[in-house]
Amino acid sequence: xxxxxxxxxxNERELERLCLGKxxxxxxxxxxxxxxxxxxxxxxxLANTWGIIPIIAHxxxxxxxxxxxxxxxxxxxxFPIQLNAGNFGRHKSERNALRLIRGGRIQVLGTDSHNxxxxxxxxxxxxxxxxxxxxxxxxxxxxxxxxxxxRSARGxxxxxxxxxxx
Length: 166
Hints:
- This protein is about 40% helix and about 10% strand.
- With about 170 residues, the protein is mostly helical.
- It is globular, with a radius of gyration of 16 Å.
- The relative contact order is 0.15.
C-alpha cells in the first residue's frame, strides 16, 4: 500500500518497514495540495538519505494539483512512475494513460485496490487496453518492471536496487 508523502517522512525512524516487502521500493503517494520545490527535493532526500527507490503512485491524479513543471521534473527523474490500471475503459482517462505510456513516462502499473469489494483489482483492463492499441512492447516492458519489483519484495534484487547502491 502507498505511503503518503510529507516533509517529515525523511525523519521516519523505521522508513524501511514501509517499503514493499523486503525491497527498497516505497510506493509513494504525493500530496493532493499544490507542490513546491521543497516537495520534489524532499522526494530526492528520501532516496538519497535512505537508499530507497520511491515509486510515484498514481501519477494521473496529480494533474491540476501540481504545476506542470513539477510533474514533468518528477516524470523525468529516475524514480519509477506508476499508473492505475483503472484508467483503462474510461475514454478520457484511457487516452491520457496511453499518452503517458507512449511518451515513456510510465514504468509500473497498479490497481489501487485496497479491498475486493469497492475497488477490486483488475489489471486486465490495462493489459487488454494496451494490446488493443498496439502497445504490446510497452506493456511487456511495464510488466517486466512490475515483476522485478515483486521479485525484490520477496527478497530478490532488482536492477534498480543494484544500481542504487553504486
